[in-house]
């Protein structure tokens, strides 16, 4: 049921993590579930005890919790993460793939939730999908349009699925030439080919942090000046490598120290101000 999905995803959500997805999951569960509304201690789930937790990792794309049911002392594990990862974990499920693609076509992100079957801590079964709406910021389309007017090409790099990336690109007025990040590390292609893909694409989907660095590196070899935005610890190498590293609002200290520009306001429109200001300075110098 809906309640099962919410409860299991709450058990596998990182408590206190400042992550928008984890916050959304915790908020949804706390708002909907009676068991969580009336509990005396906000740090416990009545009847359950989380004994082990592996937080979300960009490479595995899932988080994992080990839970004990107090009454029966039965132990089970819950995994929550990117739908393709969870579907693979349960050994495939065509209905789930269809559901995820239908949601993605509407621009909705899905998060898979699976739990282990009784008496076996290695075999998972699919519980269901949580949907999340992650719309682009209201100023993004305008920012991209202004950048293009100034002759700055904008590329979107996202960990989301390809189908969602294309939908978001379309909403932002970019063309839908989005490649799977696998293209960047394809051993069958020469560096020359990969660089051409990099130049022509409007963006990349399903990337892991290492790919960001690779994109910067390939474009710089072409003699292009590259600016890169980022907010996490794992973006720091790419921010450092780029000609202009831009740490966005609410970023980690690692990103802040690796960047050249730190944005203090949410959104990306400030970047355009940076471009106009720097060009004005350059004209004066000239």
Automatic annotation (TrEMBL):
Record bears the keyword Ubl conjugation: no
One GO CC annotation: membrane
Compartment(s) of residence: Membrane
UniProt membrane topology term: Multi-pass membrane protein
Entry-linked InterPro entries: ATPase_P-typ_cyto_dom_N, HAD-like_sf, HAD_sf, P_typ_ATPase
GO terms under biological process: monoatomic cation transport
Any GO MF annotation of the entry: metal ion binding
Major localization class: membrane
Keyword entries, A-Z: ATP-binding, Magnesium, Membrane, Metal-binding, Nucleotide-binding, Phosphoprotein, Transmembrane, Transmembrane helix
A Pfam short name: Hydrolase
Family classification: Belongs to the cation transport ATPase (P-type) (TC 3.A.3) family. Type IIIA subfamily.
Entry protein name: H+ ATPase
Organism ancestry: Eukaryota, Fungi, Fungi incertae sedis, Mucoromycota, Glomeromycotina
């Amino acid at each position: 049921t809906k309640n099962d999905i919410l409860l299991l995803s709450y058990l596998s959500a990182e408590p206190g993590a400042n992550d928008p997805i984890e916050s959304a999951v915790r908020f949804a569960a706390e708002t909907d579930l009676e068991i969580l509304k009336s509990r005396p201690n906000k740090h416990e789930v009545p009847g359950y005890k989380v004994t082990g937790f592996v937080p979300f990792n960009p490479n595995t794309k899932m988080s994992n919790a080990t839970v004990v049911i107090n009454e029966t002392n039965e132990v089970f594990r819950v995994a929550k993460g990117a739908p393709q990862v969870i579907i693979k974990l349960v050994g495939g499920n065509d209905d789930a793939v269809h559901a995820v693609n239908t949601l993605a076509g509407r621009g909705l992100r899905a998060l898979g939730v699976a739990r282990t079957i009784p008496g076996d801590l290695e075999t998972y079964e699919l519980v269901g999908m949580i949907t999340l709406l992650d719309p682009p910021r209201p100023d993004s389309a305008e920012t991209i349009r202004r950048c293009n007017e100034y002759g700055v090409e904008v590329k979107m790099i996202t960990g989301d699925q390809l189908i969602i990336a294309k939908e978001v690109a379309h909403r932002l007025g970019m063309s839908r030439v989005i490649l799977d990040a696998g293209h960047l590390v394809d051993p069958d292609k020469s560096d020359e080919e990969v660089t051409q893909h990099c130049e022509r694409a409007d963006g990349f989907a399903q990337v892991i942090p290492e790919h960001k660095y690779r994109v910067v590196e390939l474009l710089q070899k072409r003699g292009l000046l590259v600016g890169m935005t980022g907010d996490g610890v794992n973006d720091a190498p790419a921010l450092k490598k780029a000609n202009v590293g831009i740490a966005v609002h609410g970023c980690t200290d690692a990103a802040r120290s690796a960047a050249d520009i730190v944005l203090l306001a949410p959104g990306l429109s400030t970047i355009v101000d940076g471009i106009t200001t720097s060009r004005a300075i350059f004209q004066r110098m000239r």
